[in-house]
Specification:
Blueprint lengths: L7 H19 L40 H4 L7 H10 L5 E5 L4 E4 L10 E9 L9 E10 L5 E4 L5 H23 L1
Antiparallel strand pairs: 1-2, 2-3, 3-4, 4-5
Helix pairs in contact: 3-4
């Protein structure tokens, strides 16, 4: 007597059902936990909740107090990152990479001098909050007689002054986080 085979549909259905249940079990709660609030009219970005964590963009790490120094997360100091964004809040940001530690602004013309414009590149070089942990490159252009933007010289200490301002703000943020805990 020949053996009867189970119809293929009856075999495929349990396999697909098991696969669907397995995938459903892998899912989690994908609702957003925190929101970023749009920049205020004053130009400074405000962060609501803990999108960037208590200490900023540092992710993970066993000891909350040591996150800025030896985190297993991204390789950028969160205080320097936030201080950089605070310091250049008056300029439009063209690109910001928190994982690589690079912030590039777009050209900005001060209200007092519309015939010149400035641009900055900010590089955060490590996890430690150190004086050599941030580098700023400042570029300047002026309008010539033909109406074209031309590169112009900038004071040699302009980048250093901005770096000092960022470091001062980063220390303030770190002190605020230590007094909070």
């Amino acid at each position: 007597m020949p053996r009867r085979h189970m119809p293929r549909r009856l075999f495929v259905l349990p396999v697909l059902l098991a696969g669907a249940l397995s995938l459903a079990a892998c899912g989690g709660d994908h609702r957003p936990k925190d929101d970023v609030v749009a920049p205020s009219s004053a130009g400074a970005a405000k962060v609501k909740g803990k999108l960037f964590g208590d200490d900023g963009l540092t992710i993970g790490g066993p000891d909350k107090k040591k996150r800025d120094e030896d985190s297993s997360g991204i390789g950028v100091n969160s205080f320097l990152w936030r201080a950089s964004l605070d310091t250049i809040a008056f300029m439009p940001v063209a690109s910001a990479d928190p994982f690589g530690g690079v912030i590039i602004t777009d050209w900005h013309s001060p209200n007092a001098a519309t015939a010149e414009r400035f641009k900055m590149n900010i590089y955060i070089l490590g996890r430690a909050l150190r004086a050599d942990g941030v580098r700023v490159s400042v570029f300047r252009q002026v309008i010539d007689q033909t109406g074209q933007w031309r590169d112009a010289a900038i004071a040699g200490d302009a980048g250093t002054k901005i770096e000092d301002s960022i470091l001062t703000r980063a220390r303030q943020l770190r002190n605020q986080s230590l007094t909070k805990n």
